[in-house]
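Run log // design_07
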């Protein structure tokens, strides 16, 4: 668990974070969102003590981070930033293995771990381990940056707008991959973004910040259903609120079990928003629903999308 208790960060007369209190449970995917200058990145930097808070306390599993040796603290935390920051003259294998090497892991174990993580992030180890950063696309470099952050198997992963510079297709692929890694390994993830769609897609809880202050911390459904004020309401988006709500629910929750339907099927785990998009594209009012193995489960009707 990460406990942030009445934390303030001042830079001269400027207040970057103002009396912030927030608890992030172990295994939670917490997204911090807000406009530029809201203090989001400063919160991450204080958690791993790249910036010391002016007042207040930050604890990880009950330990005050300001009292821990910095090397010990940062080895427990993976950190991914938008600018990636790979060492240009090191191979991918050495970049990924930087922290395990500092921890004294044997070379064979370090390389095996790098290969394991590259495979999980859809980079073939045989093709990428011995390449250099300049030989990779930006999306591939970001995958290597994520692998480096995960290499020593930290309990906490801090991610500061890691996908902001990526094209939409690569961005969505990496969102899916980091969500799967978080689910399968139960990592505690603190993820900063200014993109509400990204926040809704990834978060188990969203913390909204404005001018250094916490405005609301809630589940995605709570945030959409009961925004705390007009700032949150505008950030969520008033005009497409219904579509965002559809994006939070899976087809399997609304389908009609055992009912057949024509046409290409839809996965049970797809969102209701995806179901609506498919119906509009295909000019139909119902779709077949299948499980992960392609076995028929039932059907979803247009009317089912409107049920609360």
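design_07 sequence
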């Amino acid at each position: 668990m990460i406990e942030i208790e009445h934390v303030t960060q001042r830079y001269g007369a400027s207040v970057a974070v103002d009396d912030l209190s927030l608890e992030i449970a172990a295994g939670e995917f917490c997204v911090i969102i807000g406009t530029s200058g809201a203090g989001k990145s400063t919160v991450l930097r204080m958690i791993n003590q790249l910036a010391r808070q002016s007042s207040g306390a930050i604890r990880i599993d009950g330990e005050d981070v300001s009292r821990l040796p910095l090397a010990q603290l940062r080895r427990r935390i993976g950190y991914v930033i938008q600018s990636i920051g790979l060492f240009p003259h090191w191979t991918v294998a050495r970049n990924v293995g930087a922290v395990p090497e500092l921890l004294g892991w044997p070379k064979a174990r370090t390389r095996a771990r790098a290969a394991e993580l590259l495979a999980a992030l859809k980079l073939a180890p045989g093709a990428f381990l011995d390449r250099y950063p300049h030989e990779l696309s930006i999306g591939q470099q970001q995958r290597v940056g994520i692998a480096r952050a995960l290499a020593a198997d930290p309990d906490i992963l801090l991610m500061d707008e890691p996908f902001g510079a990526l094209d939409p297709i690569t961005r969505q692929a990496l969102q899916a991959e980091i969500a799967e890694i978080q689910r399968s390994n139960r990592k505690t993830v603190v993820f900063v973004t200014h993109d509400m769609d990204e926040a809704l897609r990834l978060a188990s809880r969203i913390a909204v910040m404005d001018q250094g202050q916490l405005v609301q911390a809630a589940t995605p459904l709570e945030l959409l259903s009961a925004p705390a004020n007009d700032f949150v309401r505008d950030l969520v988006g008033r005009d497409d609120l219904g579509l965002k709500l559809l994006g939070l629910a899976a087809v399997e929750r609304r389908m009609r079990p055992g009912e057949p339907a024509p046409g290409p099927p839809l996965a049970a785990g797809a969102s209701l928003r995806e179901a609506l998009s498919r119906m509009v594209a295909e000019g139909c009012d119902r779709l077949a629903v299948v499980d992960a193995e392609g076995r028929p489960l039932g059907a979803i009707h247009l009317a089912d999308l409107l049920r609360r």
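Residues 90 and 149 are 16 Å apart (CA to CA).
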